[in-house]
């Protein structure tokens, strides 16, 4: 039986307003829902949770699927490290949580962030 969640996450399937939706984005107190016909709507979280028709049908993946461990084998170490940095970065963008396997604030991460971030003019 569907229950009310303590936390909504990207990819969760919910029932709301007579239809099934996927949670496509969370921003502050707003939730972007996309139904099976690909119609998007934005609902305030409080309104969504208070709705009599709201129910969580299934939860999305805890984290995006990761490639096989050996996918970077044979690449130059510099290239493989840059790919691992992007993997951590994209995982955080997609889930809102950094990859727990890596410590925060590593010097290598800051160096790559400086390369990726465009220069800002004042």
Q: TL;DR of this structure?
A:
The chain is built from three helices and five strands, in the order ββββαβαα.
Top keywords for this entry?
5 strands, 23% strand, five-stranded antiparallel sheet, alpha+beta, 122 residues, elongated, 29% helix
Structural notes for this entry:
The protein is α+β, with helices and mostly antiparallel strands. 29% of the residues lie in helices and 23% in strands. It contains three helices and five strands; from the N terminus they run ββββαβαα. The chain has helices at residues 45-50, 77-95, 107-116; strands at residues 13-16, 19-27, 30-35, 40-44, 55-58. It has a five-stranded antiparallel β-sheet with strand order 4-3-2-1-5.
Mean pLDDT: 76
Gross morphology is: elongated
Number of helices: 3
> Which regions are unreliable across 5 or more consecutive residues at pLDDT < 50?
102-110
Biggest sheet strand line-up:
4-3-2-1-5
Helix content: 25-40%
What is the N-to-C order of secondary-structure elements (H for helix, E for strand)?
Answer: EEEEHEHH
Radius of gyration: 19 Å
Task: Produce the secondary structure layout.
Elements: E1 13-16, E2 19-27, E3 30-35, E4 40-44, H1 45-50, E5 55-58, H2 77-95, H3 107-116
Antiparallel strand pairs: 1-2, 1-5, 2-3, 3-4
